[in-house]
Amino acid sequence: MPVPKDFRRFKYQSVRIDRCGRSIGRNSYWKLYAIENSWRIIIHSVLSVQISPTWWAVAVGPKKQRTLTSFRNQYLNNPLHASPGHHDIYLFFLSDLTKMLADYRNLFITVLSDIDQWIVRLETIRLPRNLVGHMNYPNTYDRQRIDTTYASLPGAFAQLNQNGITVLIP
Asked: Which of 119, 125, 160, 167 is most deeply buried (CB count within 10 A of its CB)?
């Protein structure tokens, strides 16, 4: 099935916007969702073993914790909206997750030998992720980076399993 062309390059037709939205949802958004949430789980699983089950208080600086508390309070003050999750890692952006991997590389490399490649992969999808997250249309290169990163996820979980790390949902 052909990929729809970016609606912004043509005369307005609502059907073009709908086609683009469906294409992004069907081909890119769900993969980004899986990538980000998988890395939240991986970070939580590894740091729960390498630091402690209460790793968050140790690994996240006070300034970042204050920022995230502010985000959390916005949700608490608007209880009709869905919560981003019980653990504050669900408030992290992709760039925060990547920074956590880089900052604690010494702990991740013992169970994920290709952690450096993962940091690079995640950085290469940061801009495409922002495009999709802000309802813009990724180009072929961006979609390929997302696809390649998504396709690599099972390997990260396999390494965790091989190294005795139990996968824990935060």
From this structure: 125
